[in-house]
Amino acid sequence: MDCGSVHYTAISLSLRLWSHGVLQKPSKGECCGCDAVFFLDVDMDANQTTMRGTATIEVTMASIVAMAAFAFGLSYVLDGSIFFLCATVTTTFLIGLFVVLFLNTGRASSTDGLLTVVAFYSGLTWLTIVFTTAAHGWQGRWGTSLGALLALALVTDTVVLLYTFLPVRNRVARRWMFRALWMWIIAQFIAFLALAFISDYRLGVITIILGVHLMLHGMRVGGGCSNYGLSIVVFIFLSALLFCIVGGWSTAQSVYKTPASTWLLPNYTWHGGNTPVTGVSLPQSLSFLPVCLVRFSSTVDIVGMALFAKLSDAGSLDVTLADLHRWFPNFRYVYNDTFLPLSFLQTKIFTSSLKGHNTTIVTLGTTDQMYPVMESMTIWINVVALSLLALITPSGWFVQLVSLISAADELSALLWNSSIDRARDILSAYVKSIVSPTHDVYFVGHGLAGAAAAFFVSDLPENMHSVTFASPLSAVAWRRGHNWMSDELSSRVLSVVSSSSLFSLRWMWGGLSYMIPCNLPEGECHNIDSMARLLDALCGLNTKSDGN
User: Fold this and answer.
1) C-alpha 402: how far from its chain's center?
2) Coil/strand/helix, residue 363
3) What contacts 74, CB < 8 A, 6 or more positions away?
4) Closest by alpha carbon to 38, among 26, 27, 47?
5) What is d(CA 312, CA 505) in angstroms, rounded to the nearest whole number?
6) Torsions phi, psi of 238, nearest 5?
7) First-to-final CA distance of the chain
8) Are 117 and 99 in contact (CB under 8 A)?
9) pLDDT at residue 308, as a whole number
10) What SS3 state is found at 203?
């Protein structure tokens, strides 16, 4: 599901509301298949032919929640608090739930159904504006599009309110006005659905599925159908969207503003090269886990690689330099780049020269731009779903299924994809300009950014290597059309994952990952701070001297 395109899900409820708002509810003995002809024969109740006096409780509740959603969204645009964004999403989906539940009671009249669905339509439109403003601002073509969308919603709301409260007593006239308004709303929903397919193929498929579900729910016989199934679907969509928001926010919060070297392994200082891990005595090496042995470099140990991954989250140059001089005094800072104005990915480059041999560390981390990071959280939804399928699906079928999904995913133009493509082009050109037999380059990262670091290595010369921590290699691999199970990459990519669970989604991390035990909660185990401490405790490589 695309976190920024929730407006298009309105097509699903329109199918259900058509079957109520313009159709008369059939009796238990009637066939639901004849409901379609009722659109041309809708009857207007007596209270729908005169000016309305007071709104019903259903309309009142939907309107109050819609106004709350508007207030929360405006607060988020002005303040930027994650609470207001979550509240905006929750109240908007609550309107949708109210629409279905109220109409299924049979108490709401045709006009009431029209008012409630317009309240939901307005809430979804406002939610789209909030998301898009947070991502791109109200400027340029985005501002023009948002202005047109807002004007369209205001026109729809105004016309519906005029229809509802104007004292038009001619029943035939009000009937045709009613039909015209419903056709106007449904035409908008269909147009938005077409745009959903153009901009995001997955969203179009998901919206169609939800729409068919709601349509079948609406074509029930009598009032004996349970609302639980429909409520579950609404809550699943709400949960997925909140997962994207909270996950993106927590990832963006990993960017730190003060030096971490004062509290994260403060005694660690690596001067490199003089005491490589491969030089330890045999009895001592037996106590080491395989991950503790140097795979690629004698310049930086595995703990140092984890600390470089931590450096990727430094929020300013001063913080980066303070931690770099504390942990790696023999390295110097080169530069950093975020590639795009709205990118979830940033890179920092560090280099060191020791005895005629040069080492460059390229770290990839996330920025504090919440919206692109939030879009990257859609990967985790795909990962969990596909990992569950992997348990019961033969490997050959599973690979074919994954390839089909990733082919459809290529039609989606997320900010995450543009960040990856731009970073790959720039970094590939930079690395190829410095690579030589006496110059090693390592890509280091954690989380989704770390998986991107491993992905970049596959397109670079063979002496390029990658070290990642808690990175879902397989998730990014199938999304980018690669296969991490290749033997060619096993000597170039080291992926370290810590887990406290015996049952872990191995497919998510990939066959190249090395799993180390962790006694912390599962969420803490994947934190780069915890992994650095864990590796330091397991490997015993906390060099407190100058390396002599």
Assistant:
1) 19
2) strand
3) none
4) 26
5) 26
6) -65, -45
7) 54
8) yes
9) 92
10) helix
Longest Cα–Cα distance of the chain, Å, equals 98
What whole-number distance in Å separates Cα of residue 228 and Cα of residue 245?
A: 25
Please give the Cα distance from 454 to 309 (Å, whole number): 13
Long-range contacts of 39-46 (CB under 8 A, 24+ apart): 39/179, 42/110, 42/175, 42/178, 42/179, 43/175, 44/110, 44/171, 44/174, 44/175, 44/178, 45/109, 45/110
Contact 495, 454 (CB under 8 A): yes
Beta bridge partners of 345: 366
> Tell me, what's the pLDDT at 293?
67
Token readout for 193 is 């659905």
Beta bridge pairs of residue 81? none
Residues 157, 67: Cα–Cα separation, whole Å:
13
Q: What is the pLDDT of residues 447-492, one digit of tens each?
A: 877 877 777 877 777 778 888 888 777 666 655 555 554 555 666 7
Q: Are 221 and 30 in contact (CB under 8 A)?
A: yes
Four-CA torsion 196, 198, 200, 203, nearest 10 degrees = 40
Alpha-carbon span 171 to 176, nearest angstrom: 9
Strand, coil or helix: what is 333?
strand
Q: Could you tell me which of 479, 473, 477 has the C-alpha nearest to residue 450?
A: 473
**Nearest-angstrom CA–CA distance, 189 and 191:** 5
Which residues fall within 8 angstroms of residue 340, CB to CB, at 6 or more apart?
Answer: 415, 418, 419, 422
State both tokens at 160: 């519906």
> Which amino acid does the sequence have at 17?
L
Q: What is the enclosing helix (H) or strand (E) of 521?
A: none
What pLDDT does residue 49 have?
Answer: 46
Complete DSSP assignment for 250-314: HHHTT-BSS-STTTSSTT-----SSS-GGGS-HHHHTTS-GGGS-SS-SSS-HHHHHHHHHHTTB
Among 328, 335, 298, residue whose Cα is nearest residue 310: 328
Kindly state the tokens that stand for 304.
Answer: 């140092």
140 conformational bin, left if phi > 0, alpha if psi -120 to 50, beta if neither: left
Q: What is the pLDDT of residues 73-82, one digit of tens each?
A: 888 888 878 8
Run of H or E residues at 383: helix 378-390
Give the residue ranges of DSSP H helices in 80-200.
82-104, 110-136, 140-165, 171-199
The alpha carbons of the chain give a radius of gyration, in whole angstroms, of 28
pLDDT beneath 70: ranges in the chain: 1-55, 103-110, 135, 168, 189, 192-230, 233, 271-290, 293-298, 338-343, 369-417, 474-491, 500-513, 522-523, 540-548
Structure tokens at 281: 């005595």
pLDDT for the residue 195: 65
Q: How far is the C-alpha of 189 from the C-alpha of 100, rounded, in Å?
A: 17
The burial class, CB within 10 Å (0-12 / 13-18 / 19+), for 466 is buried
Q: How far apart (Å, rounded) are the C-alpha atoms in residues 493 and 453?
A: 10
**CA 144 distance to own-chain centroid:** 26
